[in-house]
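Schema walk-through. Below, the input block comes first and the output block second. Nothing else is stored per chain. Lengths vary across the set, and this one has 252 residues.
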Amino acid sequence: MQAGVSMGLLDFQTAMGRLVRAPDGGDPLRSLHLDERERASLAALKQSSGYQFTVGVQRSWCVGRATNAGYLTLSILDPEVRSRVLDEWTNSGGGTSSFFAAETEAFLDFIAQRLPDPSHELTVCRLEQATLRANEGASTFTQRDPALVDAPECMLRRGRHAGVVMFYGEPDRILNALVNHERLLPVSDAAVVTMLFGPGLEGLCRPASQLEIALLARVGSGVELSVLMREGWRLEEIKAMLRAGFVEYAEG
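--- output ---
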């Protein structure tokens, strides 16, 4: 720091950390109590070669984390699209979280918002996201007592680690073509294959039935069993969804 600047060590470390990690735009120092001399000193420091080197290292690290987080999705995108997505993500401050799984989920959502809907690329992005979510849930998933669902007042909701992914064609063919950068037919509703992902499934996913898709949509964030029964849903169907982790008890 320049002579005469009395900023404490903790304030200095906080300011430097924010400057290095700051996304484009805005003022990362706005909530710090800095006087004009301290702000001028930090502004001068930003022009130094040491600071620029640190920012470069930080950016490279963030890009590396993002590349690992969305490896499959990024690998099938055109180089220009991939570069633009990574630039936008790191410029927005992405890549700095210490919680890799949460950041991966956020990064894949970030990519999905920038892909045509529907598209084969978006399908792969949602596939990677659903696989991550189901795999994360599988590490702690335990079969809950199915007898609990016999109580009419039992509340059910969509499983937190459940996922639904729509393929516009045969899934293996689409994945192989995208990974090998081969031409695919445009998306069409004529040959949709819907896959369900759940932490209780061996292999984490399987093709979905129309009934399963409808039930998953129906339970949403919470519905009472008695309501489902009045609507004609069968108890055994609901229990099967529980065993797979597609549906879970809404506790509390």
